[in-house]
Amino acid sequence: MERKKFLKQSLLAVPALYLGSNWLFTSCKKKDDIKPGDWKGDVIVIGAGIAGLHTAKLLLDLGINVTILEASGKTGGRIQALSGFADFDIELGAEEVHGDKSEWYNLVKGTPGVSLHTPDGEDYFFMNNTLKSETAWAGDAVLVQAQTFESTARNYSGADKTVHEAEVAQGNNPANYEISNALIGNEYGTSNTRLSIKGITEEDQLWSSGDKNYNLKTGSYDDVLRHHHAAAIDKVVLNSPVTKIDYNESKLAITTAAGKVYNADRVVITVPLAVLKSGKITFSPALPAAKTTAISNIGMGAGMKVILKFKTRFWDSALGTLIGGPKSAEMWTPGLGKSNAPILTTFVMGEKAEYLSSLGNDATNVLLAELNQMYGGNTATAAFEAAYIMDWGKQPYILGAYSYPIVGGGIAQRSALATNIDKKLFFAGEATNTAGHSATAHGALETAIRVINEVTQG
Ligand SMILES: Cc1cc2nc3c(=O)[nH]c(=O)nc-3n(C[C@H](O)[C@H](O)[C@H](O)COP(=O)(O)OP(=O)(O)OC[C@H]3O[C@@H](n4cnc5c(N)ncnc54)[C@H](O)[C@@H]3O)c2cc1C
Questions:
Q1: CATH number at residue 429
Q2: Looking at the whole model, is its pTM more than 0.85?
Q3: With a 6 A CB cut-off, is 187 part of the ligand 1 pocket?
């Protein structure tokens, strides 16, 4: 996800008065933001992704008894590394660290064996059936229009509509729709046809974690989680999908698929938004209308990474990202600046991901055909060695990529999702971030800090 690439430019155009004088520093949750109360009791955390693990870590630091119930057979949630496919770990979920003003950035920096870099690859754009570097396209009016649209889309002030409706209303050239879809909708975990332009404006105006993106030069995101959350990981009960939460009494009853019942005074729910949408967890009493409305009014849908390994590299050694493939949306070189292994990561969301997902393993052939189209002849197919498909929508306990604003939604919906119920059910996880950092790892971690302050109040 590189969605903050043009943030600096777009923010410059935002009137300072609207944002308030110290807006930049209001929402960047750090360790110092932990202001716990003195409540003590038994807590169950549901989900062992970054939000769940960090919540449990902070509770343990406060001497509070905690158990984490995790549905799958491993910790990390949407942080997963593919080891042994190349000479470096390939991130199948979160890959970039967005900004250097977050607690997550601090944890990454403080992990032995993990280092950061900002590889300076060149973007290549596929338009009018032609693949060229950004330098070679320089001055092309159709590409400039797409890039200008991308850099200003987050300053929108009209009636809410989808990003695609906005580009049509603005009279953009249809030849650049794939480019702007890759630059905007795909980065937000969906398609321009589903993403609210008002929603991304609202979220970006809150963004406070910094503009620079970092990749891991050594190690993996999972190494960071494991290093800082060892005590919390000890409290995880794997293969325990929660199916029912009964919060009628003061002691809550949490039932897993195997029929085991756990009791606790408070529960912190960190499962992905798509799991809440699916109804796989039932609540007694039923969730209040404000909560179910919020669950419906935030988007989360299909998303995939397809990792392609080749025998030889056929692209320019400086390639950073291939942008605008009608099937792939984006492909990048995850090893840039750290490995010569010829690997491409396809990062595809929304409608395009639904299509590729429907093909199963044949998605690889479609992507190779698109690369052949870009590079000519049979280039990609001839060089192909192996593929690894990570289809997040098909992960039974994730069911999608990450949350995004839909038309008519907005931060108010995220606040409603985050609000606790009767001081019994508490909600954390990326979709509950109200500080503009939803859909990110550092945003998920920040919700753990917020929820700790709530859970520990009497
Ligand atoms: C393809 C992709 C690329 C991304 N790229 C980036 C990036 O570059 N940078 C970045 O900052 N972020 C990125 N993200 C987003 C980031 O990964 C997430 O925002 C973050 O990891 C979410 O953490 P979480 O704890 O909220 O949820 P999760 O990690 O999803 O954790 C929730 C956990 O709940 C468990 N669960 C679900 N149902 C149940 C149940 N019934 N009972 C018990 N447990 C259950 C799940 O198995 C899971 O382990 C990316 C995500 C994806 C998918």
A1: 3.50.50.60
A2: yes
A3: no
